[in-house]
Amino acid sequence: MRKTTLRKTTILLGSAFTLAGPALAGAPLVTETADSLERGGCELEAAVARERSSGLPTLRSSTAILGCGVGAESQAALIHTQARFDGSREQALRLAAKTTFVAPQPGGAGWGLAYAVETVKAPGSGWRSETVDVLGLYTRELSPGLLVHANLGHSHSRSRSARQGSTLWSLGVEHIDTVTLAADIFGDDRSRPGVSAGVGFGIGGGFSVNATLAWRFEEPRVRSLNLGAKLEF
């Protein structure tokens, strides 16, 4: 079973497009998996994204993630994202963790819990506490190399201007071989769902690259291209 780091929800500066969940999954997946990094195992990941919406300026973002296994079937990650939109820049720091309660096994299922807190620095203001997220995780092997993943959880905004909560959900399928293929559908209870499709390649020495295309069917509709690279050590 492949070990993954955590997935970061993209900052959007008023754009409607967000990926479900509290961290950054093992790209090219959007849905978080139920397995965790082994103690002492780490991943360093970098990604750049470009998001476009009809009638709005293009949003560009970059994300850096350092995630490590910390024991007790758990892992933690520190995530920094910087986004530029219509001449403005916003940053976010996210501390995310994941615990596996039942490890996925060949031919079987596993489940766990992911949780994260995020602070955001908007133009002209200091850092502020923004969101707290909790997700239930489920992974099952359907056949050798073919996995299905499901997430269901809650995101609570702590912003003084808009204190609210929303339900997050996602469902993903991936096929792991020399080339990894993934597809997801994801959303929340406040907007229309989105879909994604991605591909990943292992280059050797623990290094891999990936690409993901995603669409969200809000109005205006938003489409995103994400390119990433990961080093496992």
Detail the topology: elements first, then pairings.
Elements: E1 42-53, E2 59-71, E3 74-85, E4 88-102, E5 109-121, E6 127-143, E7 146-157, E8 164-175, E9 179-188, E10 194-204, E11 207-216, E12 222-232
Antiparallel strand pairs: 1-2, 1-12, 2-3, 3-4, 4-5, 5-6, 6-7, 7-8, 8-9, 9-10, 10-11, 11-12
Please report the number of helical segments: 0
Estimate what percentage of residues fall within beta strands.
over 45%
Largest sheet: 12 strands, antiparallel, barrel
CATH architecture: Beta Barrel
Helical fraction:
under 10%
- Domain count: 1
CATH superfamily, by name, is: monomeric porin ompg
Radius of gyration, Cα only, in angstroms? 17 Å
The tally of strands reads 12
Provide a descriptive summary of the structure in words.
The chain is mostly beta strands. The protein has a single domain (42-232), classed as monomeric porin ompg (Porin). Helices cover 0% and strands 64% of the residues. The protein has no helices and 12 strands. The protein has a 12-stranded antiparallel barrel. A hairpin with a 2-residue loop joins strand 2 (59-71) and strand 3 (74-85). The radius of gyration is 17 Å and the shape is globular. Residues 1-23 have low confidence and may be disordered.
